[in-house]
Write a structure and sequence with these properties.
It comes from Marinobacter confluentis. This is Adenylate cyclase. GO terms for molecular function: adenylate cyclase activity. Keywords: Membrane, Transmembrane, Transmembrane helix. This protein is α+β, with helices and mostly antiparallel strands and 477 residues long. The protein has 3 domains: 203 residues, no CATH class; 193 residues, Alpha-Beta Plaits (2-Layer Sandwich); 43 residues, no CATH class. Strands 1, 2, 3, 4, 5, 6, 7 and 8 form an 8-stranded mixed beta sheet that branches. Strand 4 and strand 5 form a beta hairpin. The radius of gyration is 40 Å and the shape is elongated. 31% of the residues are buried.
Length: 477
C-alpha cells in the first residue's frame, strides 16, 4: 500500500548521492529497504487485517477479492515502475505513494470507517508519506486518502458499527506496529550507514585539503586559488596580457657561496626567499620561479587591478624589498656573514604571453616575451641596491614614485634603444617628511620606518638611541 520509507538515490541531493555511493562501497553499510519489499510488507499487513475481518464476518464476503488484490498489487506496481515508460518519470516514488494513498482511502471507505482497522491503514500511509516526502507529501497524501475514503463511503455507506471484534483489532494493531518497526529499523540502519559515509567523505575531504595545501607550495597562491576554485582549467592554453615583470638577484652571492658551507648557504638562501616571497604576496605579485639566487615575479595575472596599479604595486614591492634587504643584511652580519649582500632589480611593463606551457602531463605556468627579456636585462645592468625600470613602467608610476633618467640601452628584440630609469623612492618619502631613514657604517647600522612603529615601540627606540648617543659622547670626551 506504500513505498519503503527511505531511498536517498531519489532525493536529488548531490551530497546525499555521493554519501550513499561511498556507503554502498563500504562493506559495513546497510543498503536501504527497496520500494518493492516495503510495498510487499505494507500490503501484507493490510491483507492480514482483511483476512481477520473476513474470518469474523466484519467485512462482506466479496472483499476476499481485495485480499487477493492486496497480495498482487505490489508485484504489479514493481513491474510498472521498472519495466514500463513510468521508470523515466520524475519523482516516481512520490507519485506511486499517492496511488497507494488513494487505494488505502478507498479501502477505509469500503469497510465503512471501522475505527481500528481504518486507523491502522491510515497510520501506515501517513508514516510512509512523512518519511518519503516530508510534510508536503503528508498533506497531499492525507487529502487524497480522505477524498478516496469519502467517495467509497458515499458508494458503499457506513458500517453498522464502528467497533471491530477483538481479534481483528489485535491483528490490525500488530500488523501496523510490525510495519512501522521494520521500516523504522531499516531507516535507522540506513541513517547509520549514511553517517559512516559522511564521516568517510569528511576524512577524504580533509585529506584532499591537506594534500592541496601541500601542492600549493609548488604554485603561486593566485594560480593555486584559481585552479581549486574552478576559475582556471589545467590545460595547455595561453593568452596575451599586459603585465609588469620583475627580476632580482643577489650581488655578491657567488663570492659568498665560495666562503660558506652548502648547508649554511642553503639556510641563508631559503630565509632570503621566504622573506622576499612574503613581501611579494603582500603586494599581490605572482611568484613565477626561483632560479639560483634570482626571483621572477609578475603582476597582472591571474588577477589584475589595472595596468597602472599593477605597475605601481610591482615597483612598490621592489622598493619594499630593497628596504627589507638592508634589515636582513644587518641580521646576517650579526650572524658572522661579512660579505655585503645587495639586491639588484629590473622591471618592465608590456604585453607578454602568459599561461600553461609544456606537455599534457607536465605543465609550467609562466610568461614569455620580449618584456621578460627586457626585465632580465635591466636586472643584470642594475648596480647593487638599484632598481631599473623601462620607460613604459616609468610612465605609469611617475606621479607617485621619483625616478632618475639613466639614458638608453640596446636590447635584443627591440628595434630601437630602450630608455631606462632608476627608481629613487616614493615621492611622499622624499624630503624632511620621509618615513624611512637609513645610516650604515662599519660598526653602526640604523633603518627606521616610522610608519610601522607603534607608540610602545617608539619609547623603547628613543631610549635605545639616547643610550647610544650618550655612549658615543662619553667615548669622544
Amino acid at each position: 500500500m506504500m513505498n519503503a520509507p527511505v531511498d536517498l538515490r531519489s532525493t536529488g541531493s548531490t551530497a546525499s548521492k555521493s554519501a550513499l555511493l561511498d556507503a554502498q562501497n563500504n562493506p559495513v553499510a546497510i543498503p536501504p529497504m527497496p520500494d518493492y519489499n516495503g510495498r510487499i510488507l505494507a500490503y501484507t499487513a493490510t491483507g492480514s487485517v482483511i483476512a481477520a475481518g473476513l474470518s469474523q464476518n466484519l467485512f462482506p464476503a466479496w472483499m476476499i477479492w481485495t485480499l487477493a488484490a492486496a497480495l498482487i498489487w505490489p508485484h504489479v506496481a514493481h513491474q510498472l515502475t521498472r519495466r514500463t515508460f513510468l521508470r523515466h518519470s520524475a519523482r516516481i516514488r512520490q507519485k506511486m505513494l499517492l496511488v497507494d494513498c488513494a487505494i488505502g482511502g478507498g479501502f477505509i471507505g469500503t469497510i465503512g470507517l471501522v475505527v481500528i482497522p481504518s486507523i491502522s491503514v491510515l497510520l501506515m500511509l501517513m508514516f510512509s508519506c512523512l518519511i518519503i516526502g516530508g510534510v508536503r507529501q503528508w498533506v497531499f497524501g492525507s487529502l487524497l486518502t480522505i477524498a478516496a475514503a469519502a467517495v467509497a463511503v458515499w458508494i458503499v455507506g457506513l458500517a453498522p458499527s464502528p467497533h471491530s471484534p477483538l481479534l481483528t483489532s489485535l491483528v490490525s494493531i500488530l500488523a501496523t506496529g510490525s510495519y512501522i518497526c521494520v521500516t523504522a529499523f531499516y531507516s535507522h540502519q540506513q541513517a547509520r550507514a549514511l553517517m559512516m559515509a559522511k564521516t568517510q567523505i569528511q576524512n577524504q575531504r580533509e585529506q584532499s585539503i591537506a594534500l592541496s595545501h601541500k601542492l600549493s607550495k609548488y604554485l603561486s597562491p593566485q594560480v593555486w586559488q584559481s585552479i581549486f576554485t574552478g576559475e582556471r582549467d589545467v590545460r595547455l592554453e595561453t593568452q596575451r596580457k599586459k603585465l609588469a615583470v620583475f627580476f632580482s638577484d643577489i650581488k655578491g652571492f657567488t663570492e659568498l657561496s665560495e666562503e660558506m658551507e652548502p648547508e649554511a648557504l642553503t639556510e641563508l638562501l631559503n630565509h632570503y626567499f621566504n622573506e622576499m616571497s612574503e613581501v611579494a604576496l603582500k603586494y599581490g605579485g605572482t611568484i613565477d620561479k626561483f632560479v639560483g639566487d634570482s626571483i621572477m615575479i609578475f603582476f597582472g595575472d591571474p588577477t589584475s587591478q589595472g595596468q597602472k596599479q599593477d605597475a605601481l604595486s610591482c615597483v612598490s614591492m621592489a622598493i619594499d624589498m630593497r628596504k627589507h634587504m638592508k634589515i636582513m643584511r644587518q641580521k646576517w652580519r650579526s650572524q658572522g656573514i661579512k660579505t655585503p649582500l645587495e639586491i639588484r632589480m629590473g622591471i618592465s611593463t608590456g604585453y607578454t604571453t602568459v599561461g600553461n606551457f609544456g606537455a599534457e602531463n607536465r605543465m609550467d605556468y609562466t610568461i614569455i616575451g620580449k618584456e621578460v627579456n627586457l626585465a632580465s636585462r635591466l636586472e643584470s645592468l642594475a648596480e647593487p641596491g638599484e632598481i631599473l625600470i623601462s620607460y613604459e613602467t616609468f610612465s605609469l608610476i611617475k606621479d607617485r614614485i621619483m625616478c632618475r633618467d639613466k639614458g638608453e640601452i640596446t636590447v635584443k628584440g627591440f628595434g630601437r634603444p630602450v630608455p631606462i630609469y632608476e627608481v629613487v623612492d616614493f615621492r611622499r618619502d622624499m624630503g624632511p617628511n620621509r618615513s624611512f631613514l637609513e645610516h650604515e657604517h662599519s660598526g653602526f647600522a640604523m633603518y627606521l620606518d616610522s610608519d610601522k612603529i607603534t607608540e610602545r615601540e617608539r619609547e623603547t627606540i628613543l631610549s635605545a638611541l639616547e643610550d647610544a648617543a650618550d655612549r658615543l659622547r662619553r667615548e669622544e670626551e
